[in-house]
Each structure stands twice: as C-alpha cells, then as structure tokens.
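Hello, quick one for you while I still have it in my head. No rush at all, and the record is pasted right below.
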Amino acid sequence: MIPTLGLVLLAGVLVGAGVYLVTDRTFTRIVIGLALIGNGSNIALLAAGGAAGAPPILGTDALSSIADPLPQAMILTSIVITMATTAFMLALAFREWILTGGDEVVDDVEDRRLARRAATGRGSERIEDAPETEDEDSGQDEDQADRDDKDEAEGEDAK
C-alpha cells in the first residue's frame, strides 16, 4: 500500500509541475511541462494497475496471482503519444526560434481582433461587409484598433 501512495504522490507532483510549466510563456517550458504531464500520467496508470503479480501467461499460476496486462499496454501507448507530442512541440519551438530568435509565445493579434468582434456581436459578418463603427472603449474605429494591435505585436517581436 505504501509504494502505491508514493507513486500517486509522485504522479501528482509531476502533473502539478507540468501544469505550472505549461502556463508559462516560453516554448521550452511548455515542452518540458507536457513531458512532465505525460510522465506523471504514466506513473498514475502504473499505480492504478495494482500490485505486481505473476506474468500474465495462461496455465502457469492461479488467475488471482496474475498481473493485469492492460495498464502496462496503456502505459506503452501513453509513452508513444508523449514522445510524439514532445517531438512535435520541439519542432514548433525550433521553428519559432528560427523565425523570431526567441522562444517566447506572443499574443495572436488576429485572436484579439476576433474576440473583440464577437464581443460586439458582429462575429458572423464578413470583414468586407462590416460597416466601420466606433469602438465603445476607446472612441476609435475598429480598423484603427486593429492597426494598433498589429503595431503592438510588431513592437513585442522587435524586443
């Protein structure tokens, strides 16, 4: 019982540290956080598999003493998925480093623009068909707000 408790605590610490790292704004920490979450889930599956038993070969021991092979198969599948996700995120981080020279994740200007359009109730309109209106928050038209967002993003890229 005690080794299982230790595994559960270790899984919780790994997942907690992984979630903390994923919420950071750098790709490197996000990749490490996703790997920690994957390893924590593997350990949680190992702890959920129960106590170790005899090999799952039929006809050698009583069924009650045989280990359940399903958690082991799930862990192997999870390892492959974690490895593929980590490799993909490393490729994205490398691409970001090549393009910008850093690994900080910046805000997407287009996402902010779409969120502002949805908040004003004009999310379903096409941009070409939408009339120019004053932005309630700043008293400027939406196109000027979009240009300000782009200028702000370019300023962050230059840093």
